């Protein structure tokens, strides 16, 4: 269905299920992915609630438990049953942060969505400021951790490089793509097919769809409890996703322009190498049998390019697969708390 129709349908359904959900759709949904954050949870919920109550905003909190193993699941369910402002979406297993966020988007009922991390590294006190900025006429406001409290070598440096790369490839220059604290108009995220690590590319994906995007500095704190779920491996995955996005943006409509061009370049290069070797053999009278390195370099180059192209094709196939099959990237075990009627949007 059309998104607006879907929303209305959802509201109607809620009215019919009145006993189960006593709240109308709030203005703001705060979406938080949770994976093993049991120590931070009570403080986090309290901090979000007190900020938003103080600012007089009509809000709901949607926490998505991404298959935690440390008791976050039970605690979240209990909190959601006690509070009127918290809905807990419990996933069947760990699907990753992107899937958890997608689940949160689909269960959110507000016209505006704010996302943040569950480990208190983002400061809930920044939420009203982000929403105010959004209301100045943007579709997406991204937080910028100007004074980021993470390890310099393993986190800050790779992310600096990644931000520069993403910026130059997508044309959306943000200082801090990786910051989870962001505000969106709901229509910006509701039709996105997210998978892998794509949540961090939301500004770029939204921009391709014509969204107005800006960035504001936000606070950032060192992790107090638990550990980060990520290491350097994520940077590699992010760079791979980057290539896919660049490819989608520039070449999706004319794949032949890419592969054809590379084919020509390869044919040209190998012809030149062949001519050079022919020159050595026939003009200089040298034996080219003693030039294995040259051949090896050529073969490796060819193989590398082919692998790269196959990687892109595989990514495209995967995307097509995700989008055509409609295979969900997460599955919900249970929804607890107010408004636990069916979500507005399916995975
Ligand atoms: N997270 C998740 N599923 C995962 C990994 C992480 O929902 O598989 C959540 C995690 O609980 C946190 C957010 O995603 O709320 C960001 O994770 P983390 O703080 O470990 O990342 P970092 O801040 O180190 O980049
Ligand atoms: Mg963190």
From TrEMBL:
<keyword id="KW-0448">Lipopolysaccharide biosynthesis</keyword>
<keyword id="KW-0328">Glycosyltransferase</keyword>
<protein>
    <submittedName>
        <fullName>Glycosyltransferase family 2 protein</fullName>
    </submittedName>
</protein>
<dbReference type="GO" id="GO:0005886">
    <property type="term" value="C:plasma membrane"/>
</dbReference>
<dbReference type="InterPro" id="IPR029044">
    <property type="entry name" value="Nucleotide-diphossugar_trans"/>
</dbReference>
<dbReference type="GO" id="GO:0016757">
    <property type="term" value="F:glycosyltransferase activity"/>
</dbReference>
<keyword id="KW-0812">Transmembrane</keyword>
<feature type="transmembrane region" description="Helical">
    <location>
        <begin position="258"/>
        <end position="280"/>
    </location>
</feature>
<keyword id="KW-1003">Cell membrane</keyword>
<dbReference type="InterPro" id="IPR050256">
    <property type="entry name" value="Glycosyltransferase_2"/>
</dbReference>
<keyword id="KW-1133">Transmembrane helix</keyword>
<dbReference type="InterPro" id="IPR001173">
    <property type="entry name" value="Glyco_trans_2-like"/>
</dbReference>
<feature type="transmembrane region" description="Helical">
    <location>
        <begin position="292"/>
        <end position="317"/>
    </location>
</feature>
<feature type="domain" description="Glycosyltransferase 2-like">
    <location>
        <begin position="29"/>
        <end position="191"/>
    </location>
</feature>
<keyword id="KW-0808">Transferase</keyword>
<dbReference type="Pfam" id="PF00535">
    <property type="entry name" value="Glycos_transf_2"/>
</dbReference>
<keyword id="KW-0472">Membrane</keyword>
<dbReference type="GO" id="GO:0009103">
    <property type="term" value="P:lipopolysaccharide biosynthetic process"/>
</dbReference>
């Amino acid at each position: 269905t059309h998104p607006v129709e879907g929303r209305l349908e959802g509201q109607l359904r809620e009215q019919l299920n009145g006993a189960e959900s006593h709240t109308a759709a709030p203005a703001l949904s705060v979406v938080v992915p949770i994976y093993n954050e049991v120590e931070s949870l009570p403080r986090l919920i309290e901090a979000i609630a007190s900020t938003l109550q103080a600012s007089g905003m009509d809000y709901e909190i949607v926490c998505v438990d991404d298959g935690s193993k440390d008791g976050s699941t039970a605690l979240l369910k209990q909190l959601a049953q006690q509070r009127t402002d918290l809905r807990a979406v419990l996933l069947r297993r760990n699907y990753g942060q992107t899937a958890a966020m997608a689940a949160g988007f689909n269960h959110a009922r507000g016209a505006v969505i704010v996302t943040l991390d569950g480990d208190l590294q983002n400061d809930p006190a920044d939420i009203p400021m982000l929403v105010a900025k959004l209301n100045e006429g943007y579709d997406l406001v991204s937080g910028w951790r100007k004074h980021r409290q993470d390890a310099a070598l393993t986190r800050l440096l790779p992310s600096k490089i990644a931000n520069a790369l993403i910026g130059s490839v997508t044309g959306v220059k943000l200082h801090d793509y990786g910051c989870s604290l962001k505000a969106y108009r709901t229509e910006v995220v509701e039709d996105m097919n997210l998978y892998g690590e794509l949540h961090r590319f939301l500004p770029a994906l939204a921009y391709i769809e014509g969204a107005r995007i800006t960035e504001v500095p936000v606070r950032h704190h060192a992790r107090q409890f638990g550990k980060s779920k990520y290491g350097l491996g994520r940077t590699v995955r992010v760079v791979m996703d980057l290539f896919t996005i660049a490819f989608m943006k520039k070449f999706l409509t004319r794949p032949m322009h890419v592969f054809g061009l590379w084919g020509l370049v390869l044919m040209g290069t190998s012809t030149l190498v062949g001519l050079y070797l022919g020159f050595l053999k026939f003009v200089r009278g040298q034996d080219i049998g003693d030039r294995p390195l040259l051949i090896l370099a050529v073969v490796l180059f060819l193989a590398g390019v082919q692998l790269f192209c196959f990687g892109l094709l595989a990514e495209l196939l995967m995307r097509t697969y995700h989008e055509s099959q409609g295979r969900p990237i997460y599955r919900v075990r249970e929804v607890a708390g107010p408004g636990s009627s069916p979500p507005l949007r399916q995975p």
